[in-house]
């Protein structure tokens, strides 16, 4: 018993510095993560950075609304005219590569000058005074004409602006997992439709553009839901479940893994029902997990704030959890050869 505790403590000390930028599914280099979950922040009066990197900020008129899986208090509601979050400048948020995720559902598209919808950006404008920006805009290159039927995902850095293909426009009836990935050579754009009844096992970029410009390096704060540049405020009218930023260009398999996690975020909340998470089907008991059909080779266990504890090698479909694990919420990262990493959230002691 003492040996196990000593091993867990040693693992905690070794991996603590890494865990600060570990996304819950195990993907590294997560430099900011905002969930808008009222159980993880103070009634949305402030926005807590769940990555552990201290990129927390304050909010203005963000309401608590239902998230992607229709559960109350899991997303932030932006009203399109006064809601925003502001995160103080941090040099960590001036990377040379970047991958941004937004789990979002639009209510209405902005119809002000130039029709932008700011999701998250670091800068003052969308031109030279900018580090980077993820936003939605009408894909018609016309600042005066209001045409909400042609909105597309956009990304820009100083003096870089790209016109996406004229098809598959965004709408206001569904949730999306929007992703922009910049590697210094190209930018990849993902507009993934989120359907609770349909898991996508091979997410791919919807469009790609070659880049000739670097990301900016500014001292500006990060803004979510609006810009700080009147008259181009680009107010966002939407529900945001989660925004995540990585300071590198993730591989496609890693993007698949983050999507998998977002898609299955609220599934493992019951200790009795059988749950699906991509290719795993499992049942959670008070001190065990019983897998059906396929079981992982290894399970790594993390605390709710993504600190690594220990791992378990799996040899059958019945996996017992150590009796020394206290009641609470844990993340279990499951590794299966030839498959993307999967992470489930379990509640022990209910």
Write structural notes for this entry.
The structure is a single chain. This protein is mainly beta and about 350 residues long. The protein folds into 2 domains: about 90 residues, Sandwich (Immunoglobulin-like); about 220 residues, Jelly Rolls, CATH 2.60.120.200. Helices cover about 10% and strands about 40% of the residues. It has 2 helices and 23 strands. Strands 1, 4, 5, 7, 11, 12, 13 and 15 form an 8-stranded antiparallel sheet that branches. A hairpin with a 2-residue loop joins β16 and β17. The longest helix has 18 residues. It is globular and about 60 Å long. The two termini are about 25 Å apart.
Could you say how many structural domains there are in total?
2
Largest sheet: 8 strands, antiparallel
The rounded Rg comes to: 20 Å
CATH topology of the largest domain: Jelly Rolls
Query: Shape from CA axes?
Result: globular
Quote the distance from N terminus to C terminus.
Answer: 24 Å
**What share of residues are in beta strands?**
35-45%
- CATH architecture term of the largest domain: Sandwich
Chain-averaged pLDDT: 83
Number of helices: 2
Number of strands: 23
Strand/helix succession: HEEEEEEEEEEEEEEEHEEEEEEEE
Q: Helicity, in percent? A: under 10%
Coarse structural class = mainly beta
Write the layout of secondary structure elements.
Blueprint: H1 2-19, E1 30-34, E2 46-47, E3 57-60, E4 63-65, E5 75-79, E6 84-87, E7 98-108, E8 116-123, E9 130-138, E10 151-156, E11 175-182, E12 186-194, E13 207-210, E14 222-224, E15 237-246, H2 252-263, E16 274-277, E17 280-284, E18 288-292, E19 298-303, E20 308-313, E21 318-320, E22 328-335, E23 342-348
Antiparallel strand pairs: 1-15, 2-3, 3-6, 4-5, 5-15, 6-14, 7-11, 7-15, 8-9, 8-14, 9-10, 11-12, 12-13, 16-17, 17-18, 18-21, 19-20, 19-22, 22-23
């Amino acid at each position: 018993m003492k040996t196990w505790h000593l091993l867990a403590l040693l693992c905690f000390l070794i991996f603590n510095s890494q865990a600060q930028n570990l996304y819950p599914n195990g993907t590294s280099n997560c430099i900011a993560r905002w969930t808008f979950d009222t159980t993880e922040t103070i009634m949305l009066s402030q926005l807590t950075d769940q990555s552990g990197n201290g990129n927390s900020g304050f909010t203005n008129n963000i309401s608590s609304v239902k998230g992607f899986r229709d559960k109350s208090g899991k997303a932030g509601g932006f009203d399109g005219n006064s809601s925003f979050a502001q995160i103080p400048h941090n040099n960590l948020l001036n990377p040379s590569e970047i991958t941004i995720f937004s789990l979002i559902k639009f209510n209405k598209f902005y119809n002000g000058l130039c029709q932008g919808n700011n999701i998250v950006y670091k800068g003052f404008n969308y031109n030279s005074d900018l580090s980077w920006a993820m936003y939605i805009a009408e894909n018609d290159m016309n600042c005066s004409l209001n045409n909400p039927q042609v909105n597309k995902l956009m990304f820009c850095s100083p003096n870089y602006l790209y016109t996406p293909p004229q098809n598959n426009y965004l709408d206001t009836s569904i949730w999306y997992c929007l992703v922009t990935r910049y590697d210094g050579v190209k930018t990849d754009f993902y507009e993934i439709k989120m359907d609770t009844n349909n898991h996508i096992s091979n997410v791919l970029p919807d469009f790609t553009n070659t880049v000739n410009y670097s990301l900016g390096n500014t001292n500006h704060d990060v803004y979510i839901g609006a810009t700080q540049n009147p008259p181009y405020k680009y107010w966002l009218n939407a529900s945001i479940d989660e925004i995540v930023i990585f300071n590198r260009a993730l591989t496609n398999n890693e993007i698949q893994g983050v999507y998998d996690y977002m898609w299955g975020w609220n599934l493992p909340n019951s200790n009795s029902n059988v749950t699906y998470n991509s290719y795993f089907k499992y049942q959670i008991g008070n001190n065990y997990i019983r897998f059906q059909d396929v079981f992982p080779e290894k399970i790594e266990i993390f605390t709710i704030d993504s600190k690594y504890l220990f791992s378990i090698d799996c040899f059958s479909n019945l996996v017992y959890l150590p009796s020394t694990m206290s009641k609470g919420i844990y993340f279990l990262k499951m590794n299966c050869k030839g498959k993307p990493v999967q992470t489930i959230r379990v509640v022990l002691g209910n």
